[in-house]
Amino acid sequence: MTLDRTRPLFVRLLLLAFMVLVPPVGLLTYDALGEFSKGLVPELDKKAETVGRDLAASIERAVGYGIPVDHLVGMDEFFTPVLRSNPEIRYLAVTNRDGRILYLTGARREVLEPFYAVADFDDDAERVRKSNLGDFVDLAQPISGKNGRVGHLHVGIDDGFVRGRLMEIVIDIAVVTLGALLVAVEILLFVVLVNVIGPMREVGMVIDRVRRGDFSHVSGSGSDDEVGHFVSGFNAALRYCDDLFRRLEDYIDEVKAAHFDKSVVERVGEIEARVRFLFRFSRQGQPDVITERQAADIRLPLFLFVFAEEMSRSFIPLYIRDLSVPIPGLSPDLVMALPIALFMLLIAVVSPSAALAASRLGSRRIFLMGLVPATMGFVLSAWAYSVYDFMLWRGITAIGYAMVTMACQSYIAQISKQERRAQGLGVYVGAVLTASICGTGIGGVLAERVGYRPTFVVAAVLAVIAGMLIYRLLDTPQVSEQRSSPHLRQYLGLLRNWRFSALILFAAIPSKIALTGAFFFLLPLTLMLDTAVDLGDVARIMMIYPIVVVTLSPLAARLADRTGWKAGLVALGGVIGGMALVTPLIENSPQMLALGVVLLGVSHGLSASPQLAMIPDVCWTECRNIGQTNVLAFLRFAERLGSFIGPLLAAAFLPFFGYYDSIVAVGAISLGLSLIFVVLSFAYGSGPHIEAELME
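and the corresponding structure tokens:
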């Protein structure tokens, strides 16, 4: 099953954009980093000298009051806030005239004592002395008393700080470049599909009709570019043929009316019948316009909207933590989880109604209606002042998100023929996964540079741009035939199918619990426990997940189609996902969490497509009775219930286990449920549903 026929074009455009964008960005980055490095080192020295001068002045003031320099009290408490506020400064120390260390914060004494013991501090030639000391650059500031110099204050700069900062900048540039690259490819893909491939496909359809003698239609595409000029010329030729035909009809009518010889009239009638048999023209007086809608029409607006939502993915728990206020009866951890859980729950509740409204009112109208609460939610989230109103704004955003995404799915379902429905689904999945990569990475970098609140405002702007594109692209509402929705009893009847129930309980729900509970909620909070990890690092680690998923999903789909091993891939993915979350048992470190993110991406990349492909096999009878779309909708609803449970379950674990062990606890639950599905999957190859399908 080929999910997305635009993938080869996407890859070619990606290579083209890479060759055009990446080399110049790389050269500019290399030159800029060299200049940045030259300017940063002197600035660090000036800052360290300023810090040392201020601290030395404070110590000199105390010494001036008659306190001996070796009897000062509370020096650790005095130095610690300075080190915390200046990450480039690794240690602060005070030595006496002989170089013996009196006070030291931030480094080990045995590292510095050998240097200070042999250093010559009696030279008064310069006020500040700079020395290279292993991994540090030491700046010694004299401390003077009433009787002259009494010692030195040492400010130790991390010698690798500049390299670390340069590496962070390089990584940020790489993330932004990757995001810009994917955005450029999405725009190029949209332009090519809508302005080139779409019109040429319509021309091909018209040519196929003309080949069979049907001149009744012309292409409805029109633009001012070269393709548009070609289509206009092609349509003009068809209209000229139509005009010639109508002139021929008029001439035939004149001949038939003017001649009294019946043989001539009969001969002319035979010619007319022969022409009408060989060629068909519109009976409306002019050719009808044929316009083909395609799933790619909605890809770019969907990409921009999901991009906007994903921008806050890496920092939502951190933002909630800053806004958090005590709620009576709830732990602080549960309060942090509530907005995420509420967001997932409202999507699950609103999606069915949004899908029904899209089929009745049209995808364009529902998309634009959904943008109103979504944009309001983004803007108001930027101005939230407590967790209470933030929950309200995120709830409003969830309603808009459900309406927009269901409008897109409904549009694809309406315009895609049955044999191309899977390709349309590939357009939707590809846009969502690509937007997740771009939004997570760029959103994290943007939040680190300008803050959480401006990032929400940028998201609102992107949502408005998506609405403008929809308003221009879908000029007429798409309304499908109104079909009666299955009753709740029919939906619940799906659970009597043990294969479907097992798929939900032991595969679909556990994967979503792991995703929202461990990945969305616990991972950012846990990573920020490490002082060496910043928000940009969190975003970069979280970017790994969609990259792995988008890489493995087509491979897993192809493997499932060729081997038929759908249940096995779902079971394998579930086990890998559970194992991904128990990696902190090896070591509590960001590196193990990053490994867990990779494995989680492998898990969902292997299982997502085969899980959907299993539905026609295990629910063959139900798909015939209530429709495959409705069965898939119920599966999605169950998955979103798992997304709702995940953050609440993770928050319930936090007071008892802490952050790392809570991830392990969520992973243990996911792994246990997945192992049950492994056992049950061996029975998926037989049974009444499979046999009924084979008999057909």
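(Above: one complete record from the training split.) The longest strand covers residues 148-158.
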